[in-house]
Amino acid sequence: MDKPAIGIVGCAGRMGRLMAELILARDDCRLAGGTERPGSEPVGQDLGTLAGGPPIGTVVGDDPAALFAASDVVLDFTSPGASVAHVELAANAGCAHLIGTTGLDRDALAAIRKAAERTAILQAANTSLGVNLLLALVEQAAAKLSESYDIEVLEMHHRHKVDAPSGTALALGEAAARGRGVALQDKADWARHGQTGARESGQIGFAVLRGGDVAGDHSVIFAAEGERVELGHRASSRAVFAQGAVAAGLWLAGKPAGLYAMRDVLEL
Ligand code: NAD
Q1: Is the CB of 36 under 6 A from ligand 1?
Q2: 203 with 183: CB under 8 angstroms?
Q3: Could you tell me which residues come within 8 angstroms of residue 202 by beta carbon, excluding any fewer than 6 positions away?
């Protein structure tokens, strides 16, 4: 494959614009196009202008099937409903599909697994190198530290975020549970309020903060009698997710059908 063609669904979103800007600045790939919701304001606008640069003569479309057919890989940071619809289009077109959308429920994840039998799909709640390294470290720490270390996952994001806890916080909880050899759904304590009683041993607690323009702060705390181990990551700019997504998209283009993760890209 010479210069892979990268499409972006949801190209007018915060992540969509950043990824378009990065792709346009690279010379090892090309922007196949971008789509937005039919009838929405960005449809028909020049993609280059939307990404903060000069016009490129390609406008935002509203036909995702055509975009999947014209791309080697499509980057998808939209909404859970849209990503589930897109995954079917990716499988039909045999186009690689990177899904960064968070808030995916069990049915959405099942639809992704099914479509991955027909095309290459990478699903990642967080595309930054640092967070993916953190996931590996948390799994390792949870495997080494006994249940006398209480695990708490803490996250903070900007005021516009619509799902909670963040996909990354959930992935960190899953990593901790995997390290402990337990299932997260059996151990998660999602929120505390009022007369909660004492903390149950072995639980994995979550706390969520929202405000301002925070790009994404995560920490995992292992608290025992007499000491506390804290592993954390702070993203100071969303660009780190966009860079990771474009790099992972290029890695995914042309791969055989299957469900991939960032740890495959980063060889963690
Ligand atoms: P955003 O609201 O700025 O952008 C989403 C865009 O998708 C919007 O422009 C919206 O119009 C568009 N969209 C929705 N449905 C569509 C459809 N059917 N067809 C075409 N476009 C459609 O949000 P954002 O901050 O860019 O985040 C988007 C998603 O990515 C969220 O789920 C967020 O949590 C997730 N996210 C993931 C990472 C990561 O590293 N994986 C990083 C940042 C954000």
Answers
A1: yes
A2: no
A3: 147, 180, 182, 187
Burial of 100 (0-12, 13-18, 19+ CB in 10 A): buried
Tell how strand 150-157 and strand 204-210 pair up.
Answer: parallel
Residues 5, 155: Cα–Cα separation, whole Å: 35
Whether ligand 1 lies within 6 angstroms of the CB of 80 is answered as no
Tokens 């990551």 -> residue: 233
Q: Determine if ligand 1 sits within 6 Å of the CB of residue 132.
A: no
Which residue's CA is the nearest one to ligand 1's atom 20? Answer: 36
Cβ–ligand 1 contact at 33 (below 6 Å)? no
Question: Catalytic residue among 3, 86, 114, 157, which?
Answer: 157
What is the pTM assigned to this prediction? 0.91
Q: Which of 161, 187, 218, 233 is catalytic?
A: 161
Q: Would residue 160 show up in a list of annotated catalytic residues for this protein?
A: no
* Token pair in block for residue 86: 């897109």
pLDDT for res 2: 83
At 262 the pLDDT is 95
Binned at pLDDT 50, 70 and 90, residue 268 comes out as confident
Q: Output the residue whose Cα is nearest ligand 1's atom 25.
A: 14
Query: How does pLDDT run across 44-98, given as a tens digit for each residue?
Result: 999 999 999 999 999 999 999 999 999 999 999 999 999 999 999 999 999 999 9
Starting from the edge strand earliest in sequence, which strands make up the sheet with 150-157, in order?
188-189, 204-210, 150-157, 216-224, 227-235
